[in-house]
Amino acid sequence: MKQNIKVSIIIPCYNSERFIERTIYSVLKQSVSELEIIVVNDGSTDSSRDLIERIIDPRIRLINTENNGVSKARNIGLQESRGKYILFLDSDDLIQRDYLKNAMEKLESDIYDFCTFPITYINEKDKFIEMKSTLRGTYENIQFEIATFSKNISACPSAYVYKRKSLLNHGLCFNEKLQSPEDRYFLLEVGRYLKGCLIKNGILMYRVTASSLSNNKNINLIKMQEAYLNQVIENNLIQSNDVRNVFIRKMSYQLFIDYLKKFNIRSIVYLYRNFKTRF
Prior knowledge:
Blueprint: E1 7-13, H1 20-28, E2 35-42, H2 48-53, E3 60-65, H3 70-80, E4 85-88, E5 94-95, H4 99-107, E6 114-116, E7 118-122, E8 135-137, H5 142-147, E9 153-154, E10 160-163, H6 164-169, H7 182-193, E11 196-198, E12 204-207, H8 210-213, H9 219-234, H10 241-261, H11 266-276
Parallel strand pairs: 1-2, 1-4, 2-3, 6-11, 7-12, 8-9
Antiparallel strand pairs: 4-10, 5-12, 6-10, 7-8
Helix pairs in contact: 9-10, 10-11
């Protein structure tokens, strides 16, 4: 079994009873059979664990942990993985049948460390949602596109397949101090070291629910965004000074707006920070 594993699909799962079965079956139906599915149950309190255990397939490994957050769950999965390639798949997303096959064929050469795909939205019933414009992952000018919130770019981990050795050689894993937007932080690190490409003949089906459409940020989510900004600055993650300044300006403005809506005095801090980057 170990010698036959070509790709490891790591699925962090927290209270995902509505969609986890569909996500797992979309992997089991892949045209590539030499795979392992590592589901890290991050302290779910719903029926997620029971639903996963009911799916009988030797390629599924379930790891049950306390609730430590999505970044820790993905890192546990990476540590346990045995495949040549890695996909961090969210517990409500779906992938088309040849998704992994197309990725593996492209990554067989030594040219690229990872690949990414076009993205389409699906609703809670797996129906496609009409989109005004195309969406894809980032693979060129990665730090610029992520730091400046480039239009039509997604940081969703499900849209990227990596060579495992490329991640390990550069010590790339998810920042466990962040739960959101941990995916953007990870890609800023990826942009420092790895070379990627776009595969057009494959689609990630990204789940959009009522909660994901909501623009009403709670205070904890705002603080996570604040932590993201601080971690990027403290770890000097963005190499270009110009890109770093744009990132700080955009993040500061968004934090100003978010804190202002909560009538929080910290809005003043980020208003000042935003203006400071303009001069």
